[in-house]
Amino acid sequence: MAEERKRKIDDECRQFQEEWSLKYFFIKSCEKALSAICNETVAVMKEYNLRRHHQRKHQEKYVQLEGKVRSENFSKLQNQLISQRTLFSKFSNENEFLTKASYKVAYVLAKSGKPFTDGEVVKECLLLLQT
Questions:
Q1: Cα–chain-centroid distance for residue 88?
Q2: Where exactly are the structural domains of the chain?
């Protein structure tokens, strides 16, 4: 008796279609479809799922938009998402820098075996952080 292999969504190779962007206000983000309006993702990237999400949650507000007004509204929402992402990535980069700096300071303190209040150790730490 042959074993029945369960179907996996990843095996179906669903691709995001660019036409869905203006139709349903979705963008592709991290291999998922993300609503530009409410920032929710859809579990399976199929047109039916995107259309159903759009109709249930955003139909009343965005149904009257057509043509150039619709594309302008979509690009505005898309730019807002991009600016949010850059803001968060900026903060994560700052946190990464601060973590690396604290490791360098801890290394200097451990290497010297002196307290941080010693002026030479502080000077060495400042010189290390400039590089």
A1: 8
A2: 10-64
Q: Residue 31 corresponds to which tokens in the numbers above?
A: 């291999």
The answer to whether the beta carbons of residues 26 and 50 sit under 8 Å apart is yes
Specify the higher pLDDT residue, 3 or 27.
Answer: 27
Distances (CA, A) of 109 to 97, 98, 99, 105, 131: 19, 17, 15, 6, 17
pLDDT recorded at residue 116 = 67
Residue 101 near residue 125 (C-beta atoms within 8 A)? no
What is the value of pTM for the model shown? 0.49
Residue 26: its H or E element? strand 26-29
Strands ordered across the beta sheet of 26-29: 26-29, 32-35, 41-42
Q: What tens digit of pLDDT does each residue of 74-93 get? A: 778 888 887 777 776 666 67
Q: Are 25 and 36 in contact (CB under 8 A)?
A: yes
